[in-house]
Design a protein that fits this description.
Length: 324
Amino acid sequence: MKVALQNFYKCITNHPQYNSDCTLFIGYSARYFNIANDICKDFPIFNPQLHLKCMELDVNNLEQIKNSLTSSNLFILFYDSDYKQPLGRSVIVQQIISELKQFWQKSCVLKDYGSYFNEAFGVCPSELQNLNNQLMNIANESNFLRYSDDLGSNLEVDVANARWTSVCGCGNLDLVPGEIATFGKVNGIVKFTGSFLSIIPLAPKYGLIKEPLTLTIKDNIIVDVAGDDIRLITDFKKYIQYNTSNATVEEVGIGTNYAVKLRGINAGFEERHVGLHLGLGGGKSGSDHLDLIFQSGSLFFNETLIIKNETICFDNLTIQNAIN
């Protein structure tokens, strides 16, 4: 936990809204008391000037919570989704949603992390910054990104003129480090196994996808869906047919955080899992973003192998997933 807390603190100090005399608010549901308590004990050691407030996310504290969200320079919330409620928002989150939207630039929501905080922040952000930079240097010299696996996937992304973004915990609004992302023309067939990530509750319903979902993609558009799980195919088709952007690959990402393991729990940190993810939706009004996070497979920039089955491997560098 100590290493994860130190890395977490580094990510916070690199956040655009942080300063040395910062007021930081930690809001937590009861399940996350221990994490919040450790932050409250350790962070003043890291920075004695830090003004720290911690409070349970309970409806009885509603006005105090709203005031803290408004007055803080940065706030971090730990809580779980409640899929019995609209959009999975718990009762307390529904009560503060206007503040979350208004102050989104200073908002860091760590939702559905469960007991995996140590995974999410298991690698030093400066190390991931260096790793991401190395990958982007290779990417910038490449014309295409290719994905394949033992199931028969064969996907190609035109990245000849792509602009890459690094999420490494060094100046990002998103706290959790370990990803590079871009947009490019996508074509091919994938046999998807892995996890979904979205407010659309496919991950809570299906968990880790082990029976392949076959997607045919032409010029970024999903034109065919097949597989053996009829329930999953039906639900997935409902999603992509709801909005044209939902059927469109709007983002291509490569996770680089080798401490993260896929859990199928719809937690944001899973997007940093080493390997490919494709982001659907979010490009048009009324669409909902959904990430397809691939469990394994091989990624190449041109002919250079960069990742194989959760292992980063290029220029004699081999980094395996750190969690057994």
